[in-house]
Design goal:
This protein has about 260 residues and is mostly helical. Helices cover about 70% and strands about 0% of the residues. The protein is built from eleven helices and two strands, in the order H-H-E-E-H-H-H-H-H-H-H-H-H. It has a two-stranded antiparallel ribbon. A hairpin with a 2-residue loop joins strand 1 (about 60) and strand 2. The longest helix has 28 residues, at about 105-130.
């Protein structure tokens, strides 16, 4: 008689298999793919540090400008890469849905966890390099940094879930969502301090949950960092959890369309 496996055991086996498949694809799908995962944030950080050095700006909000840029850039990359990878998770793994054990959410979860793992490794390498170069890059409040990045990761996953369904229903949305990432990069405080933005424009920028995540992550690195008024971890998590639940509802409602394209 065939052994009946526990559904939870089956789910973990599926997640593990997809995680390994995605890891191999991300790291070895082309020559030196792992190198490009690291070099992209390094180039962004290096360019901004060079610009700030040219204009002779050494601190931002009482924080070392180089570490300020590193922390904000890594936090934003965690959100952006998670969102992009989750957005295309179903489309890239559609052949796997011929196996009844594999559900549309399985590759989403595997990609999101893989992205968090890869960004953790990349962050350790970049921050460790900054410390070796003489910068004070040790986090002052590691728990606050972890909470902020977890909130950004949740929001990235929720954003990707919703975006993937929207693209399935309206293919033209892919162009809109790609364009949206650029202004989001600019208005999240990645490349300029939000404290320098005058009212009432600052209040408008603070509607963006990613800005809250970046500023909270920076606050966790610097004990005397001058943050903007109105930062809220609850606001960031409200967006992250709400978008995640909305994405799961949409996945459940349009599961057949996602699988049968």
């Amino acid at each position: 008689m065939a052994e009946i496996r526990n559904p939870l055991v089956v789910s973990f086996a599926v997640w593990k298999a997809i995680f390994l498949r995605e890891a191999l694809d991300r790291l070895f799908d082309m020559r030196a793919a792992w190198f490009w995962l690291l070099i992209e944030p390094v180039l962004h950080i290096g360019f901004l540090v060079f610009i700030f050095t040219v204009i002779r700006m050494r601190t931002v909000g009482n924080a070392d400008v180089a570490v300020w840029i590193i922390v904000g850039m890594l936090a934003f990359f965690l959100f952006r890469r998670t969102a992009v990878q989750v957005t295309y998770a179903v489309d890239s793994n559609r052949p796997l849905f011929t196996y009844r054990q594999v559900k549309p959410f399985d590759p989403v979860l595997a990609r999101a966890v893989l992205e968090a793992f890869l960004m953790s490794i990349i962050s350790i390498i970049i921050i460790g390099t900054a410390i070796l170069l003489g910068h004070e890059a040790w986090p002052y409040d590691a728990l606050l940094v972890l909470q902020a990045n977890l909130g950004l990761w949740l929001f990235g996953m929720g954003y990707g879930l919703v975006a993937s369904v929207l693209m399935e229903l309206v293919p033209e949305m892919e162009h809109v969502l790609k364009i949206l990432m650029l202004p989001l990069y600019l208005i999240s405080g990645v490349i300029f301090p939000l404290a320098a933005v005058p009212q009432p424009y600052l209040d408008l920028l603070m509607l963006n949950p990613v800005a809250h995540g970046l500023e909270l992550a920076r606050a966790g690195f610097f004990p005397y960092y001058h943050t903007v008024q109105g930062l809220s971890m609850e606001y960031l998590y409200a967006w992250g959890i709400s978008s995640l639940f909305l994405g799961l509802i949409l996945y459940r409602r349009f599961a057949l369309q996602l699988v049968m394209k």
